[in-house]
Amino acid sequence: MKKIEAVIFDWAGTTVDFGCFAPVNVFIDIFKDAGIEVTMAEAREPMGMLKIDHIRAMLSMPRIACLWEEENGKPFTETDVERLYSKFEPALLQSLAHFTDPIAGVVETVTELRANGLKIGSTTGYTSTMMDIVVPLAKEKGYTPDCYFTADDTDSYGRPYPFMIFKNLQALKVSSVKNVVKVGDTISDMKEGAQAGVWTVGVIVGSSEMGLSANEFNKLSGEEQQREMARTKEAFISAGADFTIETMTELPSLIETINLQGSGKEREAIEE
Predict the structure, then answer these.
(1) Contact status, residue 102 vs residue 143, Cβ threshold 8 Å
(2) 139 is an active site residue
(3) If we measure between CA atoms, which residue out of 93, 73, 71 comes closest to residue 23?
(4) Distance CA 144, CA 172 (A)
(5) From 171's CA, which of 39, 150, 228, 239 has a CA 20 to 30 Å away?
């Protein structure tokens, strides 16, 4: 029976930057500068996509599209997308270094996975320029994958396309998509994993989908925390996740379960 050979992680909201806050405020700010007030929920909805695709997705939301047309007298164009992105990228690059702390449990979990013989890959909605900031700083703090790929490596075909995952499989010399686990914290991550045909896992606490800082989450009552986790879990499952975990520390035991109960894509036979 084949066993899991590799785990492919997302970055912000999964392995670093609890709550995925680095890009969110920048999205809100660039739209505000353009005369459009967007909500935190609207800014987070496309999270995980390539950032220019994220802006395009926000502009396509009915409420934002209507506000844009009212403000500008015409529907948005690709020129508008590019103009907003030209403001987004430098603003994010200025702040990105402050959002590279590994999330609690990640460093220890990756160490355990490697000790069990697994390879560690990664995909991201950030560009290569952004990752030039994130990767070395995360490494200094104890987290580094064996490889990472951005949409710059796949002709700008980011999530939910599966091509960044396929690049990882090639670089890590993995024998089959059936022997890979993808872990992420957004709907785009779940779609990416599902479309690649790999085991797909949503990590709940610290996720962009939950949308809470560590302080905000810890201030919730136990009942409120359970409610937020249940909501996030349902969103991941609806988007194609095979499993969810509350925190990264649960991942090694989940991989053991997959190895014991089914190689390949026998999802129906495996109970969470």
Answers:
(1) yes
(2) no
(3) 93
(4) 14
(5) 239
Q: How far apart are CA 116 and CA 172, in angstroms?
A: 16
pLDDT at 262 (0 to 100) = 65
pLDDT tens digits for range 91-146: 999 999 999 999 999 999 999 999 999 999 999 999 999 999 999 999 999 999 99
From the candidates 10, 17, 185, 242, which is the catalytic residue?
A: 10
Give me the residue label for tokens 């606490």. 205
- Residue by residue, DSSP assigns 248-261 as GGGHHHHHHHHHHH
Contact 128, 11 (CB under 8 A): no
b/e map 232-247, b = 16+ CB within 10 Å: bbebbeebbbbbbbee
Name the DSSP class of 153: G
Choosing from 17, 29, 51, 242, which is the catalytic residue?
Answer: 51
Cβ-based neighbours of 218, under 8 Å, separated by 6 or more: none
Task: Determine whether 10 is an active site residue.
Answer: yes
pLDDT tens per residue, range 153-188: 999 999 999 999 999 999 999 999 999 999 999 999
The CA distance from 116 to 261, in Å, is 18
